[in-house]
Design brief:
Blueprint: H1 4-18, E1 26-31, E2 35-37, E3 41-49, E4 57-65, E5 68-75, E6 80-81, E7 86-87, E8 89-90, E9 96-97, E10 102-109, E11 124-132, E12 136-142, E13 155-161, H2 164-183
Parallel strand pairs: 2-13
Antiparallel strand pairs: 1-3, 3-11, 4-10, 4-12, 5-11, 6-7, 8-10, 9-10, 12-13
Length: 184
């Protein structure tokens, strides 16, 4: 018969071995450049990782503000469970812009609503493109990051500058006016 202390230590060791630390879910937003010209296409990457967390639904909404148009969600990730054998159901709003400034890049439901299994985790990516219409600043942020497995809200920004040709024409015009004024 084993002494009680030995049984207690083995039981505690087994409990420690069977529990694993929970990984935090993450969201990262980035643009392909920091500065753009008017009319240029911007590519926004939204990198996601559930960290193997459990939830019955997963949502990621982006708030996009600035002088932009033609927002398109090019690709969205597919969440999975059970080592990729069970796909999460895609909601009706995934891949759409809900308003003129809010776009939903993830809208998925766990394969088992009664007792949701953990999402497999690992890197996933959504791609969004848009076009700058005027000079100004672009700001992109998650609206409610914790709706994606408790992830913290994230943001990114970029600046739109005038096209070099526009600036050159403006400078030439101003110099011409100054020269004409001098002559008169």
């Amino acid at each position: 018969m084993l002494p009680r202390t030995w049984i207690l230590l083995c039981g505690m060791g087994l409990a420690v071995c069977m529990t694993s630390p929970a990984m935090a879910a993450t969201i990262a937003i980035s643009t392909d450049k920091a500065t753009y010209n008017t009319g240029e296409i911007v590519t926004i990457a939204v990198d996601l990782d559930s960290g193997g967390a459990t939830a019955s639904t997963a949502l990621v909404d982006l708030l996009i503000t600035g002088p932009v148009s033609n927002i398109q969600i090019v690709s969205t990730p597919q969440l999975t469970s059970f080592g990729g054998t069970a796909n999460w159901s895609v909601g009706a709003n995934q891949g759409t812009c809900i308003t003129s400034t809010v776009c939903r890049v993830v809208d998925q439901i766990s394969p088992n609503l009664g007792s949701p299994p953990p999402e497999d985790g690992g890197p996933r990516q959504a791609i969004v493109t848009l076009i700058f219409d005027a000079v100004g600043d672009l700001n992109i942020s998650t609206v409610d990051g914790d709706a994606f497995f408790g992830a913290a809200n994230q943001s990114a920004s970029a600046t739109i500058v005038p096209e070099p040709g526009t600036a050159s024409l403006l400078a030439f015009g101003l110099l011409s006016l100054a020269a004409r004024r001098r002559r008169s």
